[in-house]
Please model this.
Amino acid sequence: MTGQEWARFLARRVAAAIAVVLVLSFGIFALLYLAPGSVEQTLLGTKPASPETIGAIRAQYHLDEPFLVQYLRWLGAALHLDFGTSIRSGSQVGTEISARLPLTIVLVLYGSALAVAAGLPLGVWAAVRRGLAVDRLATGASIAAVSAPPFAVGLLLLFVFAIGLGWFPVYGTGETPAQTLWHLTLPAIALGLGGMGLIVRLTRAAMVGELDQDYIVFARARGLRGRTVVGYALRNSLVPVLTAAGLIVTSTLVGTVLVEVTFALPGLGSLLVDSVTFKDVPVVQAVALLLTVLIAIINLVVDVAYAVVDPRIALGREAS
Amino acid sequence: MSLVSVRGLNVSLTGPHGRSLLSGVDLGIAAGESVALVGESGSGKSLTARAILGLLPPGLTRTGSIRIGDTDIDPGADAMAPLRGGTVALLLQDPFTMLNPLRRVGRQIADSLVAHERATSDTRRMAVTRRLAEVGLLASVADRYPFQLSGGMRQRVGIAAALAGDPALLVADEPTTALDVTTQRDVLALVRRIQHERGMGLLLITHDLRIAFSVCDRAVVMYAGRVMEDGESTVIRARPAHPYTRALLAAEPPLDRRLVTIPTIPGSVPRHDDVAGSCPFADRCALVSDECRRGRPVLAEHDGRRVACIRAAEIGTGQSAPSAVAPVPTPGDPGPALLSVAGLGKTYRGSETPALIGVSLTVAPGESVGIVGESGSGKTTLARCVVGLETPGSGSITFDGSDITDWSSLDATRRRDLRRAVQMVFQDPYSTLNPVRTVGATLREALVAMGQPAGRRDLAQLLTLVGLPEGYATKRPASLSGGERQRVSIARALAGRPQLLVCDESVSALDVSVQAQILDLLTGLQRDLGMALLFITHDLAVVRQVTDKVYVLHHGACVEHGPTGQVLDNPRDDYTRGLLQSVPREDSGWLMP
Model:
């Protein structure tokens, strides 16, 4: 693909991602607006409710204006990274989030990386040894991994490796980057296990399909070595595997909500849980919007990765 | 010395009681020799090739001896692995699936180069350029992906990749079946040229005896997993001995004359084990005697070749008696047209070149009209416009006096009436029938959709019309042969007794013997039901047998049209002439440039 074609392709995909985020932001705002209970009461929090305080709140949050104006005002401020103040702590929502975000991102990347690093080779191995013991073992294990809920896995890991064997810390995040990584290992495993199972199954299915194709027979028929042949099939299996990887990063992001609570980690997930409990509307709105943006970015990256992997996709042609 | 020597090859499903797919196959190929393995689907020709390469699909086991040069190949482990590429290479049928879709062509060729050529990027590039030049492609093709190349170019790339390891024997499995006739001729001429230049052995697998005779020194005819006849191409071509070889030659529709009926072989290829105790061809053979069913004939020397027929001496050799030639129809006044297409144009969205440019044609009631063209000629687009599956961009289509250019603008009743009057039979009988429905359910559905009575008698009548027994109503497509499936698709199209039947390459996916049956069926139906036929094909010999009038399409435009005999005997357009010269003939002359 030429540079110009790439630019056009990227512009199209970025525009689509922005459109998706805008639609979802409206959804988030509308849902919280429609949530049961009086907004004033929620916004007041523990402060006493009197006509004056309610009036002040209504003025501060522009609650007397039409819904659409309120939404646009919120969106406009959000574009400038101003999400208002937290009801619970009174500090800026933006500051609060930026203190929590890095840990969650590291955790998500760590968990997803573990899922792919373990799942991809296992899936390929199972496909190449189709029907043999390795295949059955990998398939069975992947079913167990997919069905295990992350928080239960987290508790089990804590019990065995942190409390029982004492190899890993029970809570906290550590001081240096190396320590942080060590602290985050068990949470990352708990988060990534289900994704790994999914990757094993999808990689295996895609590889089995590709290994039956004519071009594999032809590659073997002209004497290509086993590793090259598996490489051919793997490259052609990548589109479904990338789809799965994108979904896994997304679900890992959502999974942090439970895992961060299980491991007592001060990340975005635990912030969201606390804020929901406390009805801290500005924080919930901001975190939900942030998750939307992150998911849109992940999907954008997957789309671009498709195009890199399969030149037919970017050129808008049908796969033959 | 023999390059490959196969003795008593058997292939069967793995397991203690696995049924056999082929047995007792002997085959020898000397250095520089070209051998054709000929047969219809189910004959075991492709399995023989796969067995030689040690590439049988999982679940199949081979016994019998295979020697490559001086080495006995052990059937157990993948003993062929080190010999593939450098000693024996395989070229596959379909250029659209044979190449890795995500790897640049040059790299794919480089992957199978011999070690010293693969050493550095410079030697690699030079070697790839040389291989591409050998198959008549520019060096710049190396940077392309397969999807950016035409079918013919992909098959050339396939040949270059197969030959990159400099094998002593190339096994080519139907290498041109998926290609257009003109491309087929180029690719076969190329394979033959390279084979001569390199002094390489060639095992060509084909269903077409004409191609076998014109390309190869020797031909081996297989049927139901066994060898029927084996000898020099010139000998078998002049004096075929086995009744199957003769029937196969006779079933090939001739290009130069129209027959009253094409001689067919009744039935279809049986399974190997179903005919284990007798001559496999006995049930379909016109010259069968009781003796033929008593035991399996062995290959024996007869008149300069080996043949597996106990009556070989008795029935002699030679081609079957020529079939009756149909009289040239006297062109009368065709009367008002049933279908009239005027100045039809269509450009698909996102495509720069139009699929159709100003095509006009007429079909009279009961007339049979052919549309001939290669892939990309617009012939299928034209058919789809006529049956309302596409809407043309310009021009008009008139049917039975009313305008049907844009089906979507017609009201529902009119559309339903039109559906009854205009029906289509598609190319691939394997994908046009719903696999989970019985034949009866499919046909009943068609009858109901056409507003016809759909009782048991009506179903039976419809099945009889296409030559199938009534009992087939309870079968599912998977238990039918290709020919039987195509009969069901035809029955489905006939449910509403259409005035016009559009056949889009309806016989091109079938074996020769079955193709003849279906062609005879279609011409018979056309005559008996007084139905008009719009017959779309790439095969000029088929056009000769079926149609009264023909239109030749090239790049979306009609380059020539007229009565079929006139166009094929005295073509005026260069493109038509080129097409006619590309039709395979039994002599090697047609491969000369």
User: Anything to note?
Assistant: The mean pLDDT of chain B is 89. The first strand of chain B starts at residue 2 and ends at 13.
